[in-house]
Amino acid sequence: MPSSGAYSARFGSLLRAYHLVGFRPDRDYRYITINRQLRRLHPEIIRQIITELRTNGGDVWQAPQDDRIIVNDEFSLSVTIARCVETPTGLLRWKMHFDTSLIPDITVVVRMNATNRTPLDYYLFPRIDMMSGKLRLSEDNGLALDAYRFDNLELLYDIVTPISIAEVA
């Protein structure tokens, strides 16, 4: 038998080859399509964040080797997207995997809505509070996690807005 890579090269994916011959696997593989869509969405979300940070006066650049966003040469951001999964009971869950090797100062988690088409909300996790590389969220998570939840990224954009010394004093 040819390898799964051979089927992927010829038909686009192993699932596509299955579909063409009428085979219906028992497992729900919709997550593969959703993950592909979210991978395409990730650079656009990063561009939007960079644009807003610059609009608010930040000196922002993206590290080409790891996609970290460097702001004012003072702190770094990492952006991750959390895919929404509906449980058999109808509850919504989000599983996040953090790239702990990046060691960003702030990790921006974009929690997607139930259709995985648009952001539902955002979590801003500072490095000091990152406990592990994985995190599971439900719709309500209690103060320990939801203290980091925001409806938009205005707080992040406010952080980079320059303030004159006279204004602070």
How are the SSEs placed, and which strands pair?
Layout: H1 4-11, H2 14-20, H3 30-55, E1 60-62, E2 69-71, E3 75-82, E4 84-86, E5 92-97, E6 106-112, E7 119-126, E8 134-138, H4 143-146, E9 149-150, H5 154-160, H6 165-168
Parallel strand pairs: 3-6
Antiparallel strand pairs: 1-2, 2-3, 4-5, 5-8, 6-7, 7-9
| Percent helix | 25-40%
Largest sheet, in brief, is: 6 strands, mixed
Percent of residues in beta strands?
25-35%
Structural class: alpha+beta
Q: Specify the number of helices.
A: 6
Record field, number of beta strands: 9
Mean pLDDT: 87
Notable traits:
alpha+beta, 169 residues, three-stranded antiparallel sheet, 9 strands, six-stranded mixed sheet, 6 helices
How is this structure best described in words?
This protein has 169 residues and is an alpha+beta fold. The protein contains 6 helices and 9 strands; from the N terminus they run αααββββββββαβαα. The strands form 2 sheets. The chain has a 6-stranded mixed sheet with strand order 1-2-3-6-7-9, covered by helices on one side. The chain has a 3-stranded antiparallel sheet with strand order 4-5-8, with no helix packed on it.
